Amino acid sequence: MGYIAGGYQVMLLLPFTFLLFGLLADANKRRICGTFIDESKIEDMERMFGDLRLEAKTSAGYTQTIYIDLHFHVIYENTTLEGGHIPDQQIKDQIDVLNTDYGLTGLRWRHVNTTRTQNPEWFVQVGPDSEPEKNMKSILKAGEASALNVYSVGFRSGVGEGLLGYSTFPWDYSSKSTLDGVVILYSSLPGGTLAPYNKGRTLTHEIGHWLGLYHTFQGGCRGQGDFVSDTPAELSPAYGCPNKRDSCPNDPGFDPIHNFMDYSDDVCMREFTAGQISRLRSQISVYRGLRE
Ligand SMILES: *[C@@H]1O[C@H](CO)[C@@H](O)[C@H](O)[C@H]1NC(C)=O
Ligand SMILES: *[C@@H]1O[C@H](CO)[C@@H](O)[C@H](O)[C@H]1NC(C)=O
Ligand SMILES: [Zn+2]
After folding, report:
1. 2-26+34-210+272-287 to CATH, choices 3.30.1490, 2.60.60, 3.40.1350, 3.40.390
2. Going by C-beta distance under 8 Å and a sequence separation of 6 or more, which residues neighbour residue 163?
3. Per-residue pLDDT, 16
4. Quick check: CB of 82 below 6 Å from ligand 1?
């Protein structure tokens, strides 16, 4: 192709190299949420919730904003960013993202405190149902069923290795109150290093579980799925931001890839449905004493 000046070659090659690395990084890291519940437990929980919901007479619509206290706990290994020592500004930006994403739900997040704890073992090893998790939460957890505790950690090894986050469900509060809360990867906050999962939507998603929502792909194409009637059935998680995916072709609607409770990239997520909003408001009324 003839003559190319040295400088010009570099300019052509550099963007290509970055693109390659970008693709490799995406392929290595896929969203994995560690919030898990047995199918058999779901049936029992949903039957119980149905009864309690009737008793509580929760209504579909709402007029009042509900404020929820949020306690943020930074767990770090050392005072560098890679060591988990995230700046206050990222935490502030994260709360702003939450208040935007939850705008239509009528919930508002009130950041009451940040604690910072240097503990390499917790930073590396905390994961669902682990000993480090129990130690961490029994020391740091603040507030009652109506308050949200968020912990940022590194998920480097052990049962939590590779997770972006996980949460407890509202119905487990009465039996496991100390464990209540959300744990997220420190680099998933807005401005973090975890592209394409660095716009704060990991916490939006995990809080969805904390408010009683399942994944949109829960149950696949079978049965009641996520127990919300206006989220189309979905066979498996969506990644990236696919165009008109339809993984349950016999059911109405395309996959809800823009839903906060799917696995899409942060930029692709943008909504809770009316059905999800109605469900989460009933859930927190019944299990967290949060009502108008
Ligand atoms: C801080 O911790 C991170 C994460 O383990 C590690 O990669 C880094 O080398 C540590 N830095 C210092 C200065 O100790
Ligand atoms: C707020 O955080 C500080 C540490 O940053 C801690 O000493 C204090 O107990 C916390 N207060 C509440 C109300 O949780
Ligand atoms: Zn999840």
Report:
1. 3.40.390
2. 32, 33, 34, 127, 155, 185
3. 40
4. yes
